[in-house]
Amino acid sequence: MVNNNLGRNIKSLRTAYGETQLELALAVGLDSPNAIVNYEKGERNPKSEIRSKIAAHFRLTEEELINSDFS
User: Fold this and answer.
1) Tens digits of per-residue pLDDT, 46-55?
2) Continuous H helices in 17-47
3) 3-state DSSP call for residue 57?
4) C-alpha to C-alpha distance for 71 and 53, rounded to whole angstroms
């Protein structure tokens, strides 16, 4: 099941930080923005390792990243 709130939060945080999808992808160890695009659209959920890296990148816990509303 895809968590659309997670995708919205990733997009909201990324844009608030002024990052492109590619910049966020590279920051968390991905080589293409395609995964970030899919997360933001709610088409896929990040694997736990990537979700953890995204949360750390924005200085959040995974719980905050998933359950808060940053829109």
Assistant:
1) 999 999 999 9
2) 21-27, 34-41
3) helix
4) 20
Among 3, 51, 20, which Cα is nearest to 11's? 20
Distance set, CA 29 to CA 1, 43, 44 (Å): 24, 20, 17
User: Residue 62 in 3-state DSSP?
Assistant: helix
Predicted TM-score (pTM) of the model is 0.91
CB neighbours of residue 39 within 10 Å? 27
The answer on pLDDT for 1 being more than 70 is no
* Per-residue CA distances from 45 to 18, 21 (Å): 22, 15
How far, in whole angstroms, is CA 47 from its chain's centroid? 11
Q: What span, in angstroms and rounded, lies between the C-alpha atoms of 43 and 60? A: 23
